[in-house]
Design goal:
Chain lengths: ~190, ~240
């Protein structure tokens, strides 16, 4: 898997490199974990908040995710991808599981509408983050409408592809395909822009 | 495996499968190198969507997380058996998913072409390395006999990795031949036979596509046999 500018914003091996910090965290190094926290807590919290919507729940889920990173750091396998990508995958999975839990079921309909809102509602002042956000936004704009909606309703909205098909009034096959080719187009675009 | 299962890599990378489908697809990933490699890539792209949503975490969260970590016992690394199982997601066992690998035989007509291809260990490292190339991109295509395939291409590395699933052994006396296309006449890029490993092609030059055909074991100057797979990329 390719490391991306977002997934490894700092120089590999340096103090700000998530993979190096994760390796030290795996050996029980609490200082390394604190530094890792400073690097990834923003992306983790922002993504979780985006998916679960409610700040109190987002904080709870983000805490679970970040403690899980500490707990399972030794199980991260660099061969399978970048360290931040691994952490973001954990975070997304947890966030989605939270919104799909029974408790959240009542909010589903409302979320379906809110998911139409802007994908980028908050900005930190960090320049690097802003550039990445701009790049992602530009690349999302380059997708077809159905690709973009399939990808964002699933990823930011936390919907299953079956729900997405229903929301878009299209077939399951179309949605599956658009999710895949939308991500591939995004990947090519993000790669070219970095 | 049916095409329907293979087609779930996109929804899976977006966590858009229901619980049953997620479990079934994870089982599928254990034996399908093509989907496993694809999921890895799509998930990395999804992670960038995630990072783009970053915003500062509430300040109080830091102390809570660090304090909870300090009293949380860490899990041990995975056992070797589990690790081996995960590696098979990338390089599936021979019987599980018939992928193509470059043959190491000595057919005279293929000798020159095989020099361009890598006979040695086609491994998960190789896949991971190719995918880490800054310009690596993935092109998928169907295998005419019913499976599916994926090519990871890097111009920087001047190389590509080809993985095909759902193929039987080539007929007796025949071999699967790989061709580089799009830069004049197709150039032979090596042979493959059904085995457990993806195939690496070096020396892409200006090629913009890869094709696989069935050819005589002792060589062909140009693709003449039945077409098995093609994939194109641009630029
Ligand atoms: Zn598959």
């Amino acid at each position: 898997m390719r490391p991306s500018p977002a997934a490894s914003p700092r120089r590999p091996g340096g103090a700000g490199d998530p993979a190096a910090l994760l390796a030290r965290t795996a050996r029980g190094d609490e200082d390394a974990f604190a530094q890792l926290y400073d690097l990834v807590s923003g992306p983790v919290y922002g993504l979780v908040l985006r998916v679960v919507r409610d700040p109190a729940q987002a904080e709870e889920v983000a805490q679970e995710v970040l403690v899980e990173v500490w707990r399972t750091a030794a199980r991260y396998d660099a061969e399978r991808g970048g360290a931040l990508a691994w952490i973001m995958t954990l975070a997304h999975r947890r966030a989605v599981d939270r919104v799909r839990s029974a408790q959240a079921a009542a909010d589903r309909e409302e979320r379906a509408h809110r998911a139409d809102g802007p994908a980028f509602d908050a900005v930190s002042e960090e320049v690097e983050g802003r550039l990445e956000r701009e790049r992602v936004r530009r690349c999302l704009d380059g997708l077809t409408e159905i690709q973009r909606e399939s990808v964002t309703l699933a990823y930011y909205g936390g919907h299953t592809y079956r729900e997405v098909a229903e929301l878009l009034g299209t077939s399951l096959g179309t949605v599956k395909t658009r999710m895949r080719d939308g991500l591939i187009r995004l990947r090519d675009c993000l790669g070219a822009g970095s | 495996m049916t095409d329907a299962v293979h087609g779930l890599a996109g929804p899976y990378a977006l966590d858009a499968l229901g619980p049953d489908e997620r479990r079934d697809f994870e089982r599928h990933l254990d034996g399908c190198a093509v989907c496993a490699a694809e999921v890895g890539e799509l998930a990395a792209t999804a992670a960038r969507l995630g990072a783009a949503a970053a915003r500062p975490a509430p300040p109080a969260l830091r102390d809570r997380v660090l304090a909870e970590a300090a009293r949380t016992r860490q899990a041990p690394p995975r056992l070797p058996a589990a690790r081996a199982r995960r590696l098979r997601r990338i390089v599936p066992a021979l019987a599980a998913a018939a992928c193509l690998v470059l043959a190491t035989g000595l057919g005279v007509g293929w000798y020159q072409a095989d020099r361009r291809a890598e006979h040695a260990e086609a491994s998960s490292h190789m896949m991971a390395d190719m995918m880490s190339a800054p310009d690596a991109r993935t092109v998928a295509g169907s295998v005419t006999t019913g499976g599916h395939g994926m090519v990871v291409v890097s111009r920087d590395r001047d190389a590509a990795v080809v993985m095909l699933s759902g193929l039987d052994k080539a007929p007796a006396g025949r071999t699967y031949a790989v061709w580089l296309m799009g830069d004049g006449a197709p150039r032979p890029a090596g042979r493959m036979r059904v085995a457990d490993k993806p195939a690496m092609i070096h020396g892409l030059g200006r090629a913009t596509g890869i094709g696989v055909t069935v050819e005589p074991m002792d060589g062909s100057a140009e693709p003449a046999g039945p077409e098995i797979f093609t994939a194109h990329w641009t630029g």
